[in-house]
Amino acid sequence: VRRVLSGIQPTSDSFHLGNYLGALRQWVALQDDFDEAYYFIPDMHAITVPQDPEVLRERTLRSVAQLLAIGVDPARSTIYVQSHIPEIAQLTWVLQCLTGFGEAGRMTQFKDKSARSGQESASVGLFTYPILQAADILAFDVHEVPVGEDQRQHLELTRDLAQRFNSRYGETFVVPKARIVGEYAKIYDLQNPTAKMSKSAESDAGLINLLDDPKKSAKKIRSAVTDSGSTIVFDREQQPGVANLLTIQAALSDRTVDELVAGYEGKQYGHLKVDTAQVLSDFVTPLRGRVDELLDDRAALEAILADGADRARAVAADTLRKVYDKTGFLAPR
Ligand code: TYM
């Protein structure tokens, strides 16, 4: 069987446009291209930085509702919460013992995130975060992992660990590939169009949350940083803000950037912004409604997660048994 797997952290009330265009849109499409799809909410990754327990619980369920609203289908995909699969944490330990301290220290996301709080107060969990991510993937013998550009290095570590285990103990893990879609792999901050759109940016003026009021998002798009030129062309170097808006509008309207650019001949940035805001509003308006409806029936969401956990645990337990055996652990009786 060919499997696809990915995860998204429950660390805000709404997924943002970078999450959607960089990753989630691919998740939906790939449900049909693989025999099995595994999509999950990594709540254990979320606590590598401090979280309010009630808020975390609420956001976990909201995340599931958003996945369903976007089109992740529980009939075709296994949807689960990471902490419901204890085998992932168990596999993490084995993988941690195969990871070099220096190797973990080279992860750029750790360096960025720990610099924010100060190295000394960063948690050990933040340091070992990528190894937990490797376990998420390797527990399921996954072939491809659809993610944005910022996850590339974590996927490289995952591949290295899979190969290391296989060469030390014999063929065990499938060595997974990152699936990163070039044009959408990095959606940029509207105010700072050379930095990725991120919920942890200093200001949220450049961040488009899917569940925000589309009027609020339209305002952010109207104030997006462009540049001093006036012609609408796709030039990442010279006109990164315009390129970002073109990318966003093309993706949400299923047109190509070239088609859009041709239509904007002789027009100004204002036109591009108004149209992009409109296309966004057309996309998020029904989505917001569906998320509200789904959250009205929490028991139904919990039932989907219970079913997902059963299916996911069966696969992960099988992998863990093999790994424990090869590692040399005495089987319990
Ligand atoms: P997370 O929760 O930060 O982001 C979820 C997905 O969104 C992508 N993404 C972007 N893509 C394009 N442009 C952007 N501006 C942008 N911002 C975010 C991310 O690349 C990601 O694909 N460590 C992961 C979660 C994780 C995971 C896993 C992923 C845990 N275990 C196993 C895959 C497989 C993370 O923090 O993603």
Descriptive overview:
With 333 residues, the chain is mostly helical. It has helices at 17-30, 43-46, 53-70, 86-96, 101-105, 108-117, 124-138, 152-169, 214-222, 240-253, 257-263, 269-296, 298-327; strands spanning 3-7, 36-41, 77-81, 144-146, 177-179. Strand 4 (144-146), helix 8 and strand 5 (177-179) form a beta-alpha-beta unit. Helix 9 packs antiparallel against helix 12 (269-296) and helix 10 (240-253) crosses helix 12. The radius of gyration is 21 Å and the shape is globular. The protein starts with a strand and ends in a 6-residue tail after the last helix. The structure holds tryptophanyl-5'AMP. Tryptophanyl-5'AMP binds next to strand 1, helix 1 and helix 7. L-tryptophan binds at residue 136. It catalyses: tRNA(Trp) + L-tryptophan + ATP = L-tryptophyl-tRNA(Trp) + AMP + diphosphate + H(+). One of its GO terms (biological process) is tryptophanyl-tRNA aminoacylation.
